[in-house]
Every structure is written in structure tokens, then in C-alpha cells.
Design goal:
The chain has about 100 residues and is mainly beta. It has strands at about 10-20, 20-25, 35, 45-50, 60-65, 65-70, 85-90. It is globular.
């Protein structure tokens, strides 16, 4: 089978939101960590983060610079495919 996916795709991050849940889509991601500088703790405090389709607990840390997400070994691509990951972020209620 021939894979005609371009190999020069640029990693990027997209967002969508429904209520207090923010969806972060990391497209063409090859790294073991995802850093989302838009999600600074002072602007968008998060109370929970998960990866769609993954039962494993996701390691993440949010600070004033953004949020760093570590992808579990079990979901990282081991072959030549170019994955996209969708994270759900539960935002804290803003006062």
C-alpha cells in the first residue's frame, strides 16, 4: 500500500470549545511532548486534561508560560504515520 501523505507537514495546534471544555488538536505531531503556550495559567486555568481515546492518565503541567503535555508511550506513533492528537481541557470557572 502506498502512503501519499506529504512528509513535510508542519506541526500545528488548533482549538475548539464547547462550554467549559476546550479541545486542543495537535496535528502532525511527532514529538513526545506538546507545549501549548496559548493556555497560560493566568488566562485559561485548567482543572483537568485528558487525551481522547486514551485510558492512560496524561501527565501535564500548566504555568504562566502555558501547558506542557507528555504523551504516554502507549499512544505515540511507532511507525511512519503522522498522527493528530485531541486533548480535552476542562477549564476552571472564571470569576
Amino acid at each position: 500500500m502506498y502512503d501519499d501523505t506529504p512528509q513535510n507537514l508542519v506541526q500545528d495546534i488548533r482549538f475548539t470549545q464547547k462550554g467549559q471544555t476546550l479541545y486542543v488538536i495537535a496535528r502532525s505531531w511527532r514529538d513526545k511532548e506538546v507545549f501549548v503556550k496559548t493556555l497560560q495559567k493566568t488566562k485559561y486555568p485548567a482543572k483537568a486534561l485528558s487525551l481522547l481515546g486514551c485510558e492512560s492518565r496524561i501527565q501535564w503541567k500548566q504555568d504562566k508560560k502555558g501547558v506542557k503535555i507528555t504523551l504516554p508511550e502507549s499512544v505515540r506513533q511507532q511507525d511512519n504515520t503522522i498522527p493528530a492528537y485531541v486533548f480535552t481541557v476542562e477549564l476552571a470557572n472564571n470569576k
